[in-house]
């Protein structure tokens, strides 16, 4: 059994066992308290540049599904075409797996994609550290040492966004432009199964010449303020009346385009049980989340209001325009993995598009 080290920016070093690739990697260390869903989380492009600490004590016991099986031109069981995290930290790694959909061992999959994992470390102590001191930079060290690396200084969206336009359900009556900032596959599935045409465009694409009925802005990695081209394009869309919907990074980008500001949370929200409340109601939803930044809704621009708030820390979980059909959420209604309480938001978006097109009164 090979040993590796997890080294934090403050010098703290924890030794553990290697699994996956025996390699060194540096990034931002974040923790995720979800009990399941490691194949989906590991392939979520929003985790790009991050070393994920899973607090659930046993990881790997249901294996990993096939990463090559495709349905409708997208990976059937993954949230993107590859592992996006930089490294994985778990307490107990189970090399044995049992699941109807299990195809390979988690360690084998990580190794194939050259992603290091470390296990046999106290993930509760690490999580307490991150909660008390905030997210920090870190590295997994095998043989060779590395510099620390802060992914939030790089335009990660450019690295994960697709490079050319791609259409799904071509020819459908309702056409939605999806700005791909690192979109999760389940967002695409949620639209495709509702029968709309999806025009998936790169993060910096000028979509103003396309024919479409609604604009959707996806999730994505890193600091939202670095998505300057997307923010400028959204600004133009907000002067029009076409419906706009954004998820996670998309929520932050619409907020920035409207004139609000973002800030970095101390340790982020990464789990499948984040409670949010819909403004003006007592309706609470349990949501799946993965974000390190948030919109500051203490001073929203004129015309905008808070749509959802987080019941744990009161931070903004979405905004909406008071008159125009624009709304966004910080959590993940497509929930992969996680609870599907808020998937109805896709239907609401399609309904406001129908209203906008005069098909619904
Ligand atoms: N899942 C996301 O879209 C994350 C958005 C942004 N990168 C953040 O960490 O806040």
UniProtKB/TrEMBL annotation:
It is an enzyme of class 6 (ligase). InterPro entries: Anth_synth/Amidotransfase, CarbamoylP_synth_ssu, CarbamoylP_synth_ssu_N, CarbP_synth_ssu_N_sf, Class_I_gatase-like, CPSase_GATase1, GATASE. The keyword Amino-acid biosynthesis applies. It catalyses: hydrogencarbonate + L-glutamine + 2 ATP + H2O = carbamoyl phosphate + L-glutamate + 2 ADP + phosphate + 2 H(+); L-glutamine + H2O = L-glutamate + NH4(+). Its EC number is 6.3.5.5. Coiled coil: none annotated. Pathway: Amino-acid biosynthesis; L-arginine biosynthesis; carbamoyl phosphate from bicarbonate: step 1/1; Pyrimidine metabolism; UMP biosynthesis via de novo pathway; (S)-dihydroorotate from bicarbonate: step 1/3. Small subunit of the glutamine-dependent carbamoyl phosphate synthetase (CPSase). CPSase catalyzes the formation of carbamoyl phosphate from the ammonia moiety of glutamine, carbonate, and phosphate donated by ATP, constituting the first step of 2 biosynthetic pathways, one leading to arginine and/or urea and the other to pyrimidine nucleotides. The small subunit (glutamine amidotransferase) binds and cleaves glutamine to supply the large subunit with the substrate ammonia. HAMAP family: CPSase_S_chain. Composed of two chains; the small (or glutamine) chain promotes the hydrolysis of glutamine to ammonia, which is used by the large (or ammonia) chain to synthesize carbamoyl phosphate. Tetramer of heterodimers (alpha,beta)4. This is Carbamoyl phosphate synthase small chain. It comes from Moheibacter sediminis.
